[in-house]
Structures are given as C-alpha cells and as structure tokens.
Amino acid sequence: MEAATHPIGLYLKVWLLLFVLSTFSYLVDFFHAESYLRWTLILLLMMAKAGLIVAVFMHLRWERAALIYVVLAPPLCLLVLAGLMWMESDYTFVTRLLYFR
Questions:
Q1: How far apart are CA 84 and CA 97, in angstroms?
Q2: What is the pLDDT of residues 37-50, one digit of tens each?
Q3: Which segments cross the bilayer (predicted)?
Q4: 5 and 25 co-located in one domain
Q5: Least packed by Cβ within 10 Å: which of 1, 20, 24, 63?
Q6: Which distant-in-sequence residues (6+ apart) come within 8 Å of 97 by Cβ?
Q7: What is the pLDDT of residues 67-99, one digit of tens each?
Q8: How far is 22 from 40, CA to CA, in rounded Å?
Q9: What whole-number distance in Å separates Cα of residue 48 and Cα of residue 21?
C-alpha cells in the first residue's frame, strides 16, 4: 500500500493560517479586551488552532469517520459536562449569596 502524500502548499497555507490566528490571540491582549469577550475570543482562537493542527498535521482529516468520532467524542463530552458544572456553580453561588448573609 502506497502512503498518501499531501502537497507542501497545503502545509504552508495551514502554517500561515496558524500564524494569523496566533497574531489575533496576541491582539486580544494587546487591545486589552476584558471579561467574557476576552475569554470567548481566546477560547475560540485556541479551538480553531487546535482543530487545524489535529485535522491537517495529525492527518485526521483523511481518516475514516469512525476514527474521527473515537478521537473527538470524549473531549466534546467533557466540554458538555464542564458547561453543566459551570451552570451549576453559578446557581450555587447565587443561592449562597441569597441565604448566607
């Protein structure tokens, strides 16, 4: 079986896009974005960079769907659970503020 080769141009384009996304990450701090806007931008840019790295440099883009689901499903489940814990923590915090004065 012959190994698949990908054009060098693809890797250069992805590298350039990663450089641009990293520049945007730096600019978030440079322009002093604060609070939820800052963290939302940082997390979105981080996930975009991680997705590019996993898809192209780890060759996940060219794998079968079953392997992609095996690799991506556990982190997605953890993100959902972390979101649920975050919502629960806000509820607990507000409840404590109301009743423990």
A1: 20
A2: 999 999 999 999 99
A3: 12-33, 39-60, 67-87
A4: yes
A5: 1
A6: none
A7: 888 888 898 999 999 999 998 988 888 888 888
A8: 15
A9: 8
Place of tokens 């997390």: 43
Instruction: Please classify residue 33 by burial: count the beta carbons closer than 10 Å to its beta carbon, then call 0-12 exposed, 13-18 middle and 19+ buried.
Output: middle
* Residue at token pair 């350039």: 16
Q: Tell me the two tokens of residue 22.
A: 């990293």
pLDDT above 90 covers a percentage of the chain that reads 47
DSSP letter at 61? G
**Do 34 and 49 fall within a single domain?**
yes
**24 shares a domain with 1:** yes
Angle among Cα 59, 7, 48 to the nearest 5 degrees reads 45
Considering the domain architecture, whether residues 33 and 45 belong to the same structural domain is answered as yes
> What is the domain range of residue 86?
63-101
Residue 34 backbone phi and psi in degrees, to 5: -130, 160
